[in-house]
Write a structure and sequence with these properties.
By secondary structure, this protein is α/β, with parallel strands linked by helices. Helix content is 33%, strand content 19%. It contains five helices and five strands.
Length: 160
């Protein structure tokens, strides 16, 4: 076993990563879902992390995991608060553009780098939530706030 492998062998096998800036309105959906999940009884081997606006650091956070569930605001032309569960192979995340993920430069680039280095978890699931407002505000819109528990419950079902 190499040093890198042994360093990751003690961390939980499932990561739930909430991405977003909690000071930019609905962009804070990821951290809000993580906060909600931290109040739940999660199964062993699951680690919820508020990833904030991590860029390429996402690669090191994902390394050594068997499964990653990622929550982020995503602009896909739906009603505010609507959410979609998908996997990276079902969509093409655009690097250095903002057409799907509001952090696509960091998030898409991190996934591309992780794939090139062959260090991504075998299973990655993404929950994207349509934002209403991305203004400077420490609060989610009512529509996106309502999605916090919905997405959290969907993740709990996925963990079963």
């Amino acid at each position: 076993m190499t040093g890198a492998q042994s360093a990751f062998s003690t961390q939980p096998s499932t990561l739930i990563l909430g991405l977003g800036n909690a000071l930019r309105g609905d962009d804070g959906i990821g951290p809000s879902v993580i906060e909600w999940l931290n109040r739940q009884d999660l199964p062993p081997g699951v680690e919820p992390i508020d990833g904030g606006t991590s860029g390429l650091d996402i690669v090191s956070i994902l390394m050594g995991r068997e499964r990653a569930i990622i929550v982020d605001a995503a602009n896909f032309g739906r009603a505010p608060g609507e959410w979609v569960r998908f996997t990276p192979d079902l969509v093409q995340l655009k690097e250095n553009e903002t057409t799907l993920s509001l952090h696509s430069a960091g998030f898409a680039d991190a996934l591309a780098l992780g794939a090139a280095l062959n260090v991504l978890p075998p299973t990655i699931v993404i929950y994207g939530v349509q934002p209403q407002s991305l203004d400077w505000s420490p609060q989610l819109s009512a529509e996106v706030q309502a999605a916090v528990a919905e997405v959290g419950q969907a993740i709990l079902r996925e963990l079963e």
